[in-house]
Amino acid sequence: MSLRIICLGNTTLDKVWPVPELPAGSGKFRASDYFELGGGMAANAAVAAARLGADAAYWGRAGDDAAGISMQNEMAGYGVDVTQFRLFAGARSSVSSIVVARDGERNIVNFRGANLPDDPAWLPLEQVAKAHAVLADIRWVEGAAAVFAAARQAGIPTVLDGEIATDAAYATVLPHTDHALFSEPGLRAFAGRDSLDNDTRRRAALKKARDLGCKVAAVTRGAKGLLWLDDHGLHRQPAFDVDVVDTTGAGDVFHGAYACALGEGRSVADAMRFASAVAALKCTRHGGRAGIPNRSEVQTFLTNRSQ
Ligand SMILES: Nc1ncnc2c1ncn2[C@@H]1O[C@H](COP(=O)(O)OP(=O)(O)OP(=O)(O)O)[C@@H](O)[C@H]1O
Ligand SMILES: [Mg+2]
């Protein structure tokens, strides 16, 4: 039986301009190359799930412009089901211009898109009951709340990518969320604190998410690994020690892999370890999507690391 994972939320097109060094001031500059790459939290998570062998669907919105078509085609090329990736007439896609220097320094300018309809009434929520796990990011709040509510009713686990958002966005989505996995900036924003510099503070912030109804609240901390709070207390999963070349999309890939592991019925501890391995392997390769490992690469990595 195939593993069906639905990922709903953000998709964006990165237009990347490599240059020898970052331009100083205004002027005209020459790039040594140019390429376009799809990104966005839920969109990358869907690609990760597909790379891991899942029947992954991306549900989301873009404009009926060149960027929207390009993102749809790229995702389909990775084997993601884009039937519910809708391009809306009169809307405009989210795009970023990224000027990246040889030393890795970058300037990013993002346009979040325009006129993307918030009303999720078009989503085929009856399909949620056939999924094994549902993931959403916090950029399309109405969509996330709708798909999570349907999943909860059907007993399907829900995973939130908790990036920076408003209090109102969290208040809407967290009561429907089973597994709230925050980035550090996302947890700080949710907790309303400038810093969460020790485990007592991190635990208090995670407890705030659990008080809203989440079973598991976690914070991912890059190379420092992650912490999660559940009924049994605070737990930790260290990051795998790897030769890092590019951390782009590590968090997105982590979330996609975690949803896959949950969908397979694994324990939370097992899912955290599996997702950490997938994200760490991605960090050893260039590209947010091109660097995502497949299932057998992850299995070999985990077998070697458990000896
Ligand atoms: N340098 C690294 N080495 C090993 N594992 C890493 C590294 N960076 C990230 N990871 C793994 O990926 C997980 C998620 O990364 P991180 O906490 O940086 O996500 P994020 O803040 O959401 O970032 P983004 O969404 O921008 O990729 C970490 O908990 C860890 O397991
Ligand atoms: Mg992230």
Tell me about this structure.
- The strands form 2 sheets. This protein has a 9-stranded mixed β-sheet, with helices on both faces. It has a 4-stranded mixed β-sheet with strand order 3-2-6-7.
- Helices cover 35% and strands 24% of the residues.
- It contains 9 helices and 13 strands.
- It is globular and about 60 Å long.
- It has 307 residues and is of the alpha/beta class.
- It has one domain (4-22, 31-110, 128-305): Ribokinase (UDP-N-acetylmuramoyl-L-alanine:D-glutamate ligase).
- The two termini are 31 Å apart.
- Helix 3 runs parallel beside helix 4 (167-173) and helix 7 (250-263) runs antiparallel to helix 8.
- 46% of the residues are buried.
- The structure holds adenosine-5'-triphosphate and magnesium ion (MG).
- Magnesium ion (MG) binds next to helix 7.
- Rg calc: 19 Å
Hetero ligands? adenosine-5'-triphosphate, magnesium ion
Note the gap between the termini: 31 Å
User: What does the main sheet amount to?
Assistant: 9 strands, mixed
Secondary-structure element series: EEEHEHEEEEHEHEHHEEEHHH
Q: What's the overall geometry?
A: globular
| Share in β-strands | 15-25%
Distinct helical segment count: 9
Strand tally is 13
